[in-house]
Amino acid sequence: MKKYLTIFLLFYKVCFASQLDDLISFAEKNSPKLKEFNHQKNINSLKQSYILSLPNPKLYVGFSNFEINKPYLSSNNPMGSFLIGLSQEYPLPIKRYLDSQIVSKENELIDLNRTILERQLKRQIKENYADFIFSFRKEEVINQQLDLYKKYKKIFEENYKYGKVQLKDILSLDVKVLETQKILEEISKEKEIVKNQIFYLIGGDYPLNDDKTFYIEDFSEKSDVDDSVYIKQIEIDIEKTEKEIQRSKVEYLPNLEFTGEYMYRKGLPDMFTFKISITLPVFKSKKEDLIEIQKKEEKLIKQLQLENEKLRIKNLFHTVNITYNKNKQLIEIYEKILREKENQIKAIELSLKYGKAEPDEILKTLEEIFQIKLMVLDLKLENLKLRFKLEEIL
């Protein structure tokens, strides 16, 4: 029967979008944090285009060689002239290309950072959604417990007439009812807190209801740590640093600047000047070596960070896997104990009719059943959150 139920839930999940899928889609469209990355990507695209283009040319005008007491053009001063000039700086194509490659790697990092944020956001939404849905399951358990208390209160009151139960037993049952109702109120308040947290994460209000089809299949124990988005993030960062090293190697190469000037002189032929200038040094100096060494050290640091991240993810995966399987075993044990306790309560109830069982024994067994049901729900919820954690990192 359990097998057929699982197949049905999987079929339902494939055929119909679940409430959780709708929440995630809503968050992808409305989350302000995710929208930030779209603007960052646009900024870097514009930056890349700017780097590949030449700097704006310079236009200048001026007067040269004027006499202080005659600040104007005159045939008596053949050295005086009015000039207009245009200059254009020309960074070497290799420098612009490598700068563009660095920005391209920054774009890849932006995409990966967005993917990481999406995964973190999805995990948080799923965890809160699981809390929200499991609050309904806990309410069901609590209401079932209250029904049991009401049932046994009637039995106690009936047996009280025949002296089989004392008044303190009925009062103890009333106290249990009040305590359970208080738990129910606390869960209702926590549900509202979780709902508001979900609204914050998805970027707006959304009509949330109970979802009895909520189902998450088991995760695979096999995984490739190298496929983790966190690993890819560091690898791309290393590639970016490698591009920066290549850029530092050509830093010493000279940039060119072309200048053209036209000079007007009164009474003399006009003149034209053309100049080419280059930046220094033409040969690699110690300063450029230091920049390259600095970038190489940065690369070594990031390579160590990569190794550490691989170890962290492997350790996390194994820890989650062990905890997940331990919880599954505990759930099986608790469910077996629960079946035994439910059979036990029936036997005690039958004995109570003949005055062969103590009311305290019934109250104790009822409380044990109640606590076991809540513990099973908590373990199932913990396993769901472990699954969501793995989905984020792998």
TrEMBL record:
Database matches in InterPro entries: TolC-like
SUPFAM superfamilies, per the entry: Outer membrane efflux proteins (OEP)
GO molecular function: efflux transmembrane transporter activity; porin activity
Localisation: Cell outer membrane
GO cellular component: cell outer membrane; efflux pump complex
Sections of the chain in a coiled coil: 287-351
Database matches in Gene3D superfamilies: Outer membrane efflux proteins (OEP) (1.20.1600.10)
Keywords: Cell outer membrane, Coiled coil, Membrane, Transmembrane, Transmembrane beta strand
PANTHER family found in the cross-reference section: OUTER MEMBRANE PROTEIN TOLC
Protein name in the entry: Outer membrane efflux protein
Organism: Sulfurihydrogenibium azorense (strain DSM 15241 / OCM 825 / Az-Fu1)
